[in-house]
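Exercise: predict the structure of this protein bound to manganese (II) ion.
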Amino acid sequence: MSDVQEIISLMKEPSKENVALTKKAYEFSQRAHEGDKRFSGEPYFNHAFETAKNLAEFGMDAPSIAAGFLHDTLEDGNTDEKTLEKEFGKEVSFLVEGVTKLGKLKYRGLERHAESLRKLFIATAKDARVLIIKLADRLHNVSTLDGHPEKEKRYRIALETLEIYVPLADRLGMGRLHGELEDYVFPYVFPEEYKKTKEIMKKKRADHEKHLEKFRRSLQKELAGHGVKNFKTSYRVKHLYSLYKKLLRKEMDIDKIYDITALRITTETVGECYQVLGIIHGIWKPLPGRIKDYIALPKPNGYQSIHTTVFTGDGAIVEIQIRTEQMHREAEYGIASHLAYKKGFFEKFKSSKNRQAVQKKLGWINELIQWQENVSENKKFLKELKMDFFKHRVFVFTPHGDAIDLPEESTPVDFAYMIHSDIGNHLSGAKVNGKMASIKTKLRNGDIVSIETKKNAHPSRKWLEYVKTGMAQRHIRLWLQKNQQN
Ligand code: MN
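Solution:
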């Protein structure tokens, strides 16, 4: 049953206006898709409903949920932008327009696909909710892939999800969505590997859980005994595709994988996280080299948690993840989780100081747009998007420890422009890991980069020969243009 109450009950802010907007979009979508069927034969409206429901589950706001209901009405539902704007206002119609593919008449095949993606990215740079709606749409599509009659198309959709939408979900820090998308498409992209991994999981899981449960009970006792209050413990079972990727890295040796299941401890404060870690290491010996403090040094997508792996004393080895409740929500829902806490987050984001903090998280989308402007051929655009933009990346650090995400073979010049165009435009030299380095140096994972600037320093045409990012190329060209005219 597709009852709108089900979605309203999931909403973070079920105010009168928000509920009214949701109901209106629900009814409009139902009418727009009336009589239409999906490949599986079920009513098309089910897809709109499930997309809206996914958005409510991510904690998204009412305009996003409304846009979820309406996201296919322009493409398949016999309505037009004018009507949508008249009925729902600019905000909602912008979101719907952003996820709508380009017209079938003007574009075909690969061109349509690539141009629609470009359009999606441009809309996302203006409003990140557009991408989240697209991902909610894709999540439902891949969860119902078996209803698609053409084998080849199923494979194409599954592969595209893995190559484009999964990395996007990762960039947004949406861990749960990332894992679900991967697991839905895994059997379609790698059927044999899927079967094998599933079997391994089945064989090992029960054993792991038995050890974990026993360990959890003694851990709870110890934490309570040391006066730790307000903590919760839970299990997380590794997603299948994630397990498969790890098996590949460990020569398919399951005995080298300790985190098929992991014990999660959530606390209220950061201080309690370290207190818990101290207590655990005081009792159980940690496996050397496996302690990771992503609280002090978050992953580039914002993920925070402490990971450690300990010997339980009865022959078992257990992975433990320690984080605050808020870090946990952010790990699950990423950028969407901010909407749940800060009212009017995106409005603030457009106008005020918050912008910089969030802009940093979304910096990659601006970089993506500037990069794609230089790649006019669509085939090349798709290929480089998958390989250079999502796959081959390096993470380097500012002297303050902030992670900056760059394409492989990026240089200190690229790094400087990622920080700020003024820094790039006045770059005079660079240090890599504390030593003076050529500004042509190809940066490597983990490098700490600091940029030196001088008032009278300026870009040179030569830089264009070795910079890697669209961001740097664009700013250098801009500067050259401006200063040639003078
Ligand atoms: Mn759709």
